[in-house]
Amino acid sequence: MANPRFFDNSGPLSLTDLADIAKAEIHRGDAQGSFQDVQPLQKATAHDISFLENKLYVKAYETSKAGACLIEPAFIERAPNTMALLVTDEPYRAYARVAQAFYPSSCFPKVNMMSIHKNADIDPSARIGNNCTIDSGVRIEANVEIGSGCSIGANTTLKQGVSIGESCHIGENTTVQFATIGNGCVLHAGVRIGQDGFGFAPGTEHLKVPQLGGVRIGDNVDIGANTCIDRGAGPDTVIGDGTKIDNLVQIGHNVEIGAGCLLAAMSGVSGSTKVGNYVMIGGAASIAGHLTIGNGAKIAGRSGVMRDIASGETVAGYPAFPAKEYWRQVAALKRLTKSNKGA
Amino acid sequence: MANPRFFDNSGPLSLTDLADIAKAEIHRGDAQGSFQDVQPLQKATAHDISFLENKLYVKAYETSKAGACLIEPAFIERAPNTMALLVTDEPYRAYARVAQAFYPSSCFPKVNMMSIHKNADIDPSARIGNNCTIDSGVRIEANVEIGSGCSIGANTTLKQGVSIGESCHIGENTTVQFATIGNGCVLHAGVRIGQDGFGFAPGTEHLKVPQLGGVRIGDNVDIGANTCIDRGAGPDTVIGDGTKIDNLVQIGHNVEIGAGCLLAAMSGVSGSTKVGNYVMIGGAASIAGHLTIGNGAKIAGRSGVMRDIASGETVAGYPAFPAKEYWRQVAALKRLTKSNKGA
Amino acid sequence: MANPRFFDNSGPLSLTDLADIAKAEIHRGDAQGSFQDVQPLQKATAHDISFLENKLYVKAYETSKAGACLIEPAFIERAPNTMALLVTDEPYRAYARVAQAFYPSSCFPKVNMMSIHKNADIDPSARIGNNCTIDSGVRIEANVEIGSGCSIGANTTLKQGVSIGESCHIGENTTVQFATIGNGCVLHAGVRIGQDGFGFAPGTEHLKVPQLGGVRIGDNVDIGANTCIDRGAGPDTVIGDGTKIDNLVQIGHNVEIGAGCLLAAMSGVSGSTKVGNYVMIGGAASIAGHLTIGNGAKIAGRSGVMRDIASGETVAGYPAFPAKEYWRQVAALKRLTKSNKGA
Questions:
Q1: Do the interacting molecules here have an ipTM over 0.90?
Q2: Which segments of chain C belong to CATH 2.160.10.10?
Q3: Could you tell me the pTM of the whole model?
């Protein structure tokens, strides 16, 4: 079980409850059977529910002692006899829902009461919705708006005019300025939103070009620790609904990122680049400025993208090539050194 | 117009005012004509001033409805008839000045009054100049000196003995220690200045090597959000006048960076490397330690520099080669895979 | 001497004291001779002690005016006549100890008294050991445990249930959650420990997968400014004893790093990768997920590791190859462009 020092377990849950939560069907098992926890196949016992998504784990599944398992229909035949079976087309997503149900407080608890710390420094013109938690040392400037059910972590600053939707969780030591944030967003600790883009008119003395845009963040966006999103130079910097951004990511001014994208840690998108919907950007990859990345493109980790990428394309390398070509290049270079050995 | 929720527009300004501010000459137009805003060529109306610097936008210029435009002399002929013309050799720099005039508060407003938040924790030995703003939760330790006209953002710490010049803006949640900072500097939120360099005498137990230098930052230096600059091991780490550093940059101990450099986001300079004046370092590029980078060198984004770079040289790749050679390598490798296809 | 504005010099120390501190033997010199400072060979005077470890500096050693020097036995012969000689097999480590003795406060002073700032926000259930310093704006939540002799920098948050051993130094604006930290650790400013790993069950709407593990950090671990260490998804994320991590490093969920590793700035280790003991990871290198890196492996700066690395292996490049092979590839590619020049 998850360390009780940090996590509260909300179980037990019955098999019927679990099926409802998971959006799965009970194929086999006692509807009133009681479960206490989620566990991987190898560690699960009779009181645990597990899941099988990756075929690499079929062996573990066949010998698992889990009391219940979330599986695709194709794996019904191979289940141990003692296992209750919840069938779904998406076992991993079903697992996510079930794990959230056992450990709701692990995913930013819903805030049910108003709690504003006496040390918080809140401008009287700020409008704060119902049932918000505002921790010590928070600074909320003039005309800030915060929807209901939000939590704002200690020593965070929301600067003048910032707007935050409902049910958002803003971590500690975070700074938000010139920004409008939708509902259900998570900003982890140390996030920086809305500071000046890197705009200078170069010369003997580089002149600052005023950055007159803002940042618009959609609904259900997650932003990882210490990630930075600059505000636009004229247009806004935009992050679409449901996009998830990992730690230490840099988003330059005027960048537009679509809906449902996944940006892994230490990736970066340079100024004015437009990224479509459901694009996946691997860790430590970077995309140069003023490019267009099509919907559903996949950028491998550590790639350096220097040209537009078509929808659905998968690229890798620096400069980034179609992934297959990149791997051919790697192989060709390897052969070349073999043939030159000792030269 | 920039979002009035975030930006105050200081217009209108007359064409004469604009010419003075821009350091440009009125070639055509009503000297008393009144302008309210800056806008790009495509969006500008009769009350807006725009600029043309990049030849890609000549078409937009020829059809623009901007009331006035900042241009080089060569483009006078192609202007629409209705457009007032302000002529200069550097239209983008002129635009920067004009935009600053319309939106002075977008570029760290000059602080005109003393305002120290009651929650700030300031050692009695600290000396703070006139007209400073010190926000809530700021900690200022013994013997800190701050010049006049500075602002210090919420929950920032200036540790013992730090010295900051006049008219500096230090963002929120920033930490400055063992450092001397000149006049007119901007440190964005989350900047870390002066922590220990990464110095260990390796062994079964790695021993910390005391880092006995400081950080010296010149005048008019900008440092981006969450950027880290370590203090020296013995000598100081130095950043020259007018250098601009973007977000999430790492500067190692003993590094010396000259004047007027531009370091884009996620770039890094390893310990003891010396970077000349007006060097440009692209995003996510890194420079190994103990190297010398000559004046005016250009390091392409994502390069990995492992040798000294001569003044004026442009390099790219990992390891970095002269840029033309790098691109020949990319092309050669591409040809190689073509000829090996199916092999 | 180190800038007295920032550093207190605890000298003088006698040659006998220095030999004891350095764990070296006096080969020559007045045991009662008095020394005031550490200096490099070129700058040292009669009152300074220096060291020679790198053969590149033998010339400087032969002409140095240092009053004393830490050397290996092999260099006794070449010493200037006036120099007191302290002989050891590890002069650089001996220097580290001596420099710590002259400047103890440069390495996180031992905390000798209890000092809790009146603005700190401490839950009554937290247990804080003797002789701790807790600065302004610190937030310490329920059931946190802190050992004796720790310092907690301004505006840092230790969230519910966090446990910190003895003699730890936590910098400013740091956030620690779901974590257990050993004795003698240093977390520099802006460090983020224990936030959610980047775990989503992808789909039209990406579902958060609860991150039910924690972070376990051993003894004598240093963590650089703005570095992020995510907590595990189920198992813990683990950092072994004596490992030193530089600034702006990313450690993903479920990663296990052994003892005595050195991770330079901007490096990253992706989720579920296991790194052995005494592994060295260069600056801006990254390691993909689910890999195993053997004991004593060396990963060159900027490498991109995409496969398991055997113990003791040295790799470089992207994708990373054995370092010798990488350099042959670089050379081969260079030759290839030479022969294709003008093609």
A1: yes
A2: 174-343
A3: 0.97
